[in-house]
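Human: Not sure, check this?
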Amino acid sequence: MPTLIVITGPTGVGKTAAAIELAQHLGCDIINADSRQVFKGIPIGTAAPTPQEQALVRHHFVQFKELDEYYSAAQFESDVMALLPQLWTQGKWAVMCGGSMMYVDAVCRGIDNIPDISPLVRQAVKQQWQEQGLEPLLAELERLDPEYYAIVDKKNPKRVVHAIEVCRQTGVTYTSLRTGSAKERPFNIIKVGLNLERPTLFDRINRRVDLMLEAGLEQEARSVYHLRHLNSLNTVGYKEMFAYFDGTMDFTTARERIKKNTRVYAKKQLTWFKRDPNIMWCKPGDCCNTVFNLIKNKS
């Protein structure tokens, strides 16, 4: 049976380099599982694989969507499941690399069959959020789906907005459509999580932000500043740069805030992934040996 090898872990830990080394050993392609690297025009701030890295191993789903295009974990699941049979004709291995928790889960466990949201519903909810804030949407969610309201992260606009979209689109509760059960996959899955000691990881993150700024993050952010309302740009790096451009934050504060918010996101990723007992954890330099040992044990 073919095998999908998932390389995941916190931002800045070194997933791309490890995945490239592994894919070169196995002679296979890499599937990108980063929800921001799918968008064009923002390679620096998203730490997308460089042209040089992509020349070493073929990558899929890197910078293939416009910034104003909607793309979700459910669409990613569908795209990957359509791609994998093509990859299996070339060999029995494929590597998926990324730290976007929902994208990884979408492929490994599957996404509940939530109906597509119409552009009219999506725009109406988005406009209400932008004009009125999150409180009215939370009140609506409490009324429409009190069960989900009780567990949702009420400070996470993306989760709240999506639940409201589903409720309005379908006329039923979001809870009723969330089964939480894993789908059967016609391939084996090996999951390896990369991690480092916390001080080392945070130092890597801080240094990477400095390197991004040296590479032109400010100029990149200015080039998309007119699109700052898009969800694709509602992410660490660009939000802080936009605040700097708006004059609500000076450059030094923006730089340090990017570092801090990236470290916070890394901790959130680790909390999420540590719940998965199927992930084998190792240091980035031990990735290949860990995978080969897992393969040997499964054979």
Summary: The chain has a mean pLDDT of 94. The CA atoms of residues 41 and 103 lie 21 Å apart. The radius of gyration is 20 Å. The longest helix spans residues 251-273.
